[in-house]
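Handoff note, outgoing to incoming analyst
You'll be picking up this chain. Sequence as last confirmed:
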Amino acid sequence: MTLTLSGAPLMAYLLVSVRLAAWLVVAPPFSSRSVPVLAKSLLALGLALAVVPGMRHVVVPTDMVTLAATALQEALIGASLGFVTYLVFAAVEAAGSLVDVFGGFSLAAAFDPLSQNMNSIHGKLFSMLATMLLFASGAHLLVIGGVLRTFERMPVGTAWQPADVADVVSTAFGMFFTAAVQIALPLIGVLFLADLGLALLTRVAPQLNAIGIMFPAKIGLTLLVVGMSFTVLPDALTRLLETLSEAMQAMGTAG
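Most recent structure output, in case you need it:
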């Protein structure tokens, strides 16, 4: 038995896999070192199977130079989509880092061998909670679906304008970190008022040695307000994912 493969569908399949693989390399939680490279490759090849049947009318370049340029463009598109996805988790982690700064936990930052950088305590906690909520709620399917829909708006080989994508990424960057401040702002306000109250106490009654009770009280209050913030984190993550979907659609039409 002889197995024959048509060249154009096979090249389209490989180009689609390049975009998806670039997205998986950058986008958390798939970008973590805990996810093997083989698993990322197989996931990219598997997702590409869902895209190729709808690309029958796409013209695939045949010469080597154009094919290499198209593959590079697909990798850049996937990396850009992955960076926008990364901003969602970075925004949640930034909210936790802000709580650490105002709660006095910033000195206890630890080295994370998976990400190869220093992570704050509550920043890592918020990031892990966001990942858990992403998979527990099934929102990861919406994120993957948003990436797959970009092939409908911007098929393989479509002229790509990085300037338009840069505008979308910069706008998403500002919106995501505005959301990070909005998540952490109520907690920061409570901690600031606690600092102000303890400062006034040291001025009114210095003999009470308020500094001795300041640190355990601040730690207890920080843990209390962080526990209360868990109830609003799902809604905040939902809004961030809606913004992510809009950014992906805008990037899918930039071209």
